[in-house]
Amino acid sequence: MADREFDLFVIGAGSGGVRAARFSADRGARVAVAEERYLGGTCVNVGCVPKKLFVYASHFRDEMESATSGFGWSVPSASFDWPTLRDNKTREIERLNGIFDGLLRDAGVQHIDGRATIVDAHTVEVEGTRYSTENILVATGGWPTVPEIPGAEHAITSNEIFFLDELPRKAIIVGGGYIAAEFACILHGLGVEVTQLYRGPLFLRGFDDDVRSHLAEQLRSRGIDLRFDTNVTAIEKTESGISAKLTDGSTLDAGQILYATGRHPLSANLGLEDVGVELAPSGAIVVDEISRTTIPSIWAIGDVTDRINLTPVALHEGVCIAETLFNDNPLSPDHEDVPAAVFTQPPVGTVGLTETQARERYGEVEVYRSTFQALRQTLTGGWERTMMKLLVDKKSDRVVGLHMVGPEAGEIVQGFAVAIKAGSTKADFDATIGIHPTSAEEFVTMRTPVEG
Ligand code: NDP
Description:
Blueprint: E1 6-11, H1 15-26, E2 31-35, H2 41-46, H3 48-70, H4 82-107, E3 110-113, E4 116-120, E5 123-126, E6 129-138, E7 142-144, H5 158-161, E8 170-174, H6 178-189, E9 193-197, H7 209-222, E10 225-227, E11 232-238, E12 241-246, E13 251-254, E14 256-259, E15 263-265, H8 272-275, E16 298-300, H9 311-326, E17 340-342, E18 348-352, H10 355-362, E19 365-372, E20 386-393, E21 399-405, H11 409-421, H12 426-431
Parallel strand pairs: 1-2, 1-6, 2-3, 6-16, 8-9, 8-14, 9-10
Antiparallel strand pairs: 4-5, 5-6, 7-15, 11-12, 12-13, 17-18, 18-21, 19-20, 20-21
């Protein structure tokens, strides 16, 4: 080994970068991490964590309605103060930034402030200082993409929504993915009149079709103006906000327009192409099964590789890097049966294959599906319905897909994901006693397939 300053130089202190840095240092490596923005990356600063705090905030309206309509409480007229939520959230995020700093320091990782660029296969430059390193790990994440339409500069993205001076009375949300659906529900729950526009026939492409249609129905019942096969062609600034021209020829006015139309890998201007690292047309860094790029000393993990863009996946990829490089244990990240949740109201939880994927892979598939009113709703005259679905490979009896739309779907599906990962069969599900009364017990009590 040449006498270099570091064994690993990480670019980007988000979930994946910090995990790889700490775990590598724990295994005895000399590690530096450079960050130009905020410690903790998208997840901690403008993603999962503040989003979930907002999700909690947005639930209270429903909770208070249920409390008063069915459970005997009286709540003196409640009102919501956006600056309080926004600033409490920011304080918590700043606390987490400090915790990340402490974690790096305690692990003995050198934290370098500033934008890093790659000079050659073993050299990184930050603010004019060059560092030599055996390995470089690129973990720079992604950034919201806004399509180039006239007036796009008037749109905000998930980067800005967390810091608005005031909440609009009306908002338009463009996109049909995780962020669009989650913010449609958050804003609606906080009292904003929401129109969500999606360019295709049904949102959440890639999710199970029953999940997509059930959720659409639930959001509409909740009062969200969900419009499919509709997009924005131009945006104009008005005195009270913006005016959006839609593909159907109509216009829609609102205080804000939030674009949640995907994210792109942050791979530009890092010097990657100059040193010969291959990028996909999307800008994603091309990596092999152990997250190595086309240059053997340069590695990449997380959203910048555009594999599965979820924090826990980036964390896992970070651990694999530390094991591969510093524990003599080449580990390929496992991207099979990754559970996920969409924190809408009601939320979605999912693990394994969709029905379409299951049929493609296994041919004969048994479908178990149940749609019901949760007990909690019975006293409130609530219209919300929970949907649960199991997909079983008929030949092996293995449960290959499990989906839920309903309260606590993320919490429930996390547990069942272990069973799916372990290869549980429908017979195993049937042999499991339910916890009564819960919604989750439905997953172990569905006996008659609706198809297959
Ligand atoms: P997604 O990729 O999930 O969704 C993007 C949406 O924008 C799709 O509906 C897409 O439509 C639409 N779209 C793309 N381009 C255009 C365009 N030019 N005009 C109109 N619509 C367009 O991205 P998000 O931004 O919602 O989230 C990014 C990623 O972050 C997610 O994929 C997920 O991995 C992660 N995330 C995870 C969360 C969680 O775990 N709960 C929460 C938030 C984000 P189409 O389907 O037709 O392509």
